[in-house]
C-alpha cells in the first residue's frame, strides 16, 4: 500500500527544467507549496538570447491564442508587457496571407490575434515574472541526475542534483512533489528503471521534419507586402514543405522553411532561398531575395511525435508528475507545444486544488489523477495534429476508426474557409484551442462544410 505523503507544512515542490513548462508549473505550484525549487541545468541570465538547453529556441515559435490567455492568467499583464516591449500582434486572418490546400484563406478581421516574438524574448519575460515570486527559488547550473524514492518505492521523495558551476558531488534535495518539465529528452523513464520501477509505454509517430529558421531585418515600409505575415503550406499528400515569414521584436522578420518526410531544407543561405522557391507561392522567395539577413540559417531535426503514457503505469509512484515535452512532444508545425505545456501546468493547479480541498494535505493519489487528466488534455491537440499528418501515406501509424471520412471533411473545410468567414472564424478558434475541434461539426457549421462554404 502507498503511504500518505507527509502532511502539514512546510511543503516543498521541485520542478525540473526552467523552460516554458517548468516556468508555468513553478508559478502554479507556488500557490500550493511553501517553497518551490526550480532546477535548471543552464546558466540563466536576464537576456533574450537562445540557450543550450532549449536548442529549438532558435526556431520560429508562435503562441496560440489559448496559450496566450493561459500565460496571461498565470502572469497578469504579461501580454501587454510583451506588446510594449516589441512583440507584434497579428490577426490570424486579416494580417496573414495563408495559402493552404492550394487556396488562400479568406482575409477579414477575425479577432483571433496572436503575438509574434522570438522564443527567447518570450521566455525572458516569463522568467522575469518567476524570479519576482518570493517562494520560488531558481537553482540554475544545477543538473538533476536522478530521482530519490521511499524505501518501498511507492513515492518519490526528492532528486539528486549536481552543481555545474563548482563541480561538486551530487546532493539530495527532498520534496513532497517533483514535477518533471525537463523536455523531450527527459530521463524519468531511465530514473524509474534505476529505482527498479517500470517506465511508461511510448507512442511515436514518425514525421521526419526538418526546420530551418533565419532572421532578417524587415525591409523599409515601401517594400513591405500587403500582409504582415505569410504562411504557405504544400498540399498533401505531395506537398511536404512550408514557409513562414512573421514579424518579431526589433523590427525583424523570423522566417522559416520546413519540410517533412525527406523533403528537407538545407542550411546554406543559397539553398535556403532555392528551397523557398519550391513552395506553392513564390512570395517568400521574392521577399527574401533582397532582404538583409541578421543570422545564419539554424537547422533543427524533429524525427517523431513522442508521447509517454504515464497514466497507464500500474506502479506510478506518488510525488511525481511529468508535463510539457517530457510528457508529449508534437510535430512543431502546428505550434501546440507551449500552449499544451501551460494548459498542463494549469491542470496541475486544478488537480491540486481539488485534491487538497478533500484531504488533510496528503498528496496520495495526486500523481495518477494528474497524469490521467493530462492524458485527456493532450488527446485533443494530438488528434488534431496527427490527423493532418496522417494524410501522408508515408506516415506509418494506425489511423483511427473513421479517419478517411474525417480527412475528407477536413479537406472540404480547408477549401471552404477560402471564402466562408463564419467557418473560417470557427476553424481559427479550433486551431487556437479556444473551441474543441468537434465544434466544427455542429449542424450550423457542418452544412456549410458540406456545401463547400458560403461566400461572405
Ligand atoms: C523546432 C521546434 C519548433 C517549435 N515551435 C513551436 C511553436 O511555434 N509554438 C509552440 O507552442 N511550441 C513550439 N515548439 C514546442 C516548444 O518548444 C515546447 O513545447 C515548449 O518549449 C515546452 O517545452 P518544455 O518546457 O516542456 O521543454 P524544453 O523547452 O525542451 O525545456 C526543457 C528544460 O529543461 C532543462 N533540463 C533538461 N534536463 C535537465 C536536467 N537533467 N536538469 C536540469 N535541467 C534540465 C533544459 O535545459 C530546458 O531548460 C517547437 C518545438 C520545436 C522542436
Descriptive overview:
By secondary structure, the protein is an alpha/beta fold. The protein folds into 3 domains: 12-72 and 122-203 and 307-387, FAD/NAD(P)-binding domain; 87-118 and 204-302, 2-Layer Sandwich (D-Amino Acid Oxidase, Chain A, domain 2), CATH 3.30.9; 401-450, no CATH class. The protein is built from 12 helices and 19 strands. It has helices spanning 20-29, 65-74, 78-84, 119-131, 188-194, 269-277, 283-289, 337-358, 366-389, 403-416, 421-431, 443-450, and strands at residues 12-16, 35-39, 88-91, 96-100, 103-104, 113-116, 136-139, 142-149, 156-163, 171-174, 177-180, 201-217, 229-233, 241-248, 252-260, 292-293, 298-309, 320-322, 328-329. Strands 4, 5, 12, 13, 14, 15, 16, 17 and 19 form a 9-stranded mixed sheet that branches. Helix 1 (20-29) runs parallel beside helix 8 (337-358), helix 2 crosses helix 8 (337-358) and helix 6 packs antiparallel against helix 7 (283-289). The longest helix has 24 residues, at 366-389. The radius of gyration is 23 Å and the shape is globular. The N and C termini lie far apart (63 Å). The structure holds flavin-adenine dinucleotide. The site of flavin-adenine dinucleotide has 37 residues, from helix 1, strand 8, strand 17 and helix 8.
Structural key phrases:
456 residues, alpha/beta, FAD/NAD(P)-binding domain, D-Amino Acid Oxidase, Chain A, domain 2, 3 domains, 12 helices, globular, disordered N terminus, binds flavin-adenine dinucleotide
Ligands in the model, by name, code or SMILES, are: flavin-adenine dinucleotide
The tally of helices reads: 12
Distance between the termini: 63 Å
CATH superfamily of the largest domain: FAD/NAD(P)-binding domain
Q: How many structural domains?
A: 3
Counting DSSP E segments of at least 2 residues, the number of strands comes to 19
What is the percentage of strand-forming residues? 15-25%
The structure class reads alpha/beta
Q: What is the share of helical residues? A: 25-40%
CATH fold naming of the largest domain: FAD/NAD(P)-binding domain
Round the Cα radius of gyration to an integer and report it: 23 Å
Amino acid at each position: 500500500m502507498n503511504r500518505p505523503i507527509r502532511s502539514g507544512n512546510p511543503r516543498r515542490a521541485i520542478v525540473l527544467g526552467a523552460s516554458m513548462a517548468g516556468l508555468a508549473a513553478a508559478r502554479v505550484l507556488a500557490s500550493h507549496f511553501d517553497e518551490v525549487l526550480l532546477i535548471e541545468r543552464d546558466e540563466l541570465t536576464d537576456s533574450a538570447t537562445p540557450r543550450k538547453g532549449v536548442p529549438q529556441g532558435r526556431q520560429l515559435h508562435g503562441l496560440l491564442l489559448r496559450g496566450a490567455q493561459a500565460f496571461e492568467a498565470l502572469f497578469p499583464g504579461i501580454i501587454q508587457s510583451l506588446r510594449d516591449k516589441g512583440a507584434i500582434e497579428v490577426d490570424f486572418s486579416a494580417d496573414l496571407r495563408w495559402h493552404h490546400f492550394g487556396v488562400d484563406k479568406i482575409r477579414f478581421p477575425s479577432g483571433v490575434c496572436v503575438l509574434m516574438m522570438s522564443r527567447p524574448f518570450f521566455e525572458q519575460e516569463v522568467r522575469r515574472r518567476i524570479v519576482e515570486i518570493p517562494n520560488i527559488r531558481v537553482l540554475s547550473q544545477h543538473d538533476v541526475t536522478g530521482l530519490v524514492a521511499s524505501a518501498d518505492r511507492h513515492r518519490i521523495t526528492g532528486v539528486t542534483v549536481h552543481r555545474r558551476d563548482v563541480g561538486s558531488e551530487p546532493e539530495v534535495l527532498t520534496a513532497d512533489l517533483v514535477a518533471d518539465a525537463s523536455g523531450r529528452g527527459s530521463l524519468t523513464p531511465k530514473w524509474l528503471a534505476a529505482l527498479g520501477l517500470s517506465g511508461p509505454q511510448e507512442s511515436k509517430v514518425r514525421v521526419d521534419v526538418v526546420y530551418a529558421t533565419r532572421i532578417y531585418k524587415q525591409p523599409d515600409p515601401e517594400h513591405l507586402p500587403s500582409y504582415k505575415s505569410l504562411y504557405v503550406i504544400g498540399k498533401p499528400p505531395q506537398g511536404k514543405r512550408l514557409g513562414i515569414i512573421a514579424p518579431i521584436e526589433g523590427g525583424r522578420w523570423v522566417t522559416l522553411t520546413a519540410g517533412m518526410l525527406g523533403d528537407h531544407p538545407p542550411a546554406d543561405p543559397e539553398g535556403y532561398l532555392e528551397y523557398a522557391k519550391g513552395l506553392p507561392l513564390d512570395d517568400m522567395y521574392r521577399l527574401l531575395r533582397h532582404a538583409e539577413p541578421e543570422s545564419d540559417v539554424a537547422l533543427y531535426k524533429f524525427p517523431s511525435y513522442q508521447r509517454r503514457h504515464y497514466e497507464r503505469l500500474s506502479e506510478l509512484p506518488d510525488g511525481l508528475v511529468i508535463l510539457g515535452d517530457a510528457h508529449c512532444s508534437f510535430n512543431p508545425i502546428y505550434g501546440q507545444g507551449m500552449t499544451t505545456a501551460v494548459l498542463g501546468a494549469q491542470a496541475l493547479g486544478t488537480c491540486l486544488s481539488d485534491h487538497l480541498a478533500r484531504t488533510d494535505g496528503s498528496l496520495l493519489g495526486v500523481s495518477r489523477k494528474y497524469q490521467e487528466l493530462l492524458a485527456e488534455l493532450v488527446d485533443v491537440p494530438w488528434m488534431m495534429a496527427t490527423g493532418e499528418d496522417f494524410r501522408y501515406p508515408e506516415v506509418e501509424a494506425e489511423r483511427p476508426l473513421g479517419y478517411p471520412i474525417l480527412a475528407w471533411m477536413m479537406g472540404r473545410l480547408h477549401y471552404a474557409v477560402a471564402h466562408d468567414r463564419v467557418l473560417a472564424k470557427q476553424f481559427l478558434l479550433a486551431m487556437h484551442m479556444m473551441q474543441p475541434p468537434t465544434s466544427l461539426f455542429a449542424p450550423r457549421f457542418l452544412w456549410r462544410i458540406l456545401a463547400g462554404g458560403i461566400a461572405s
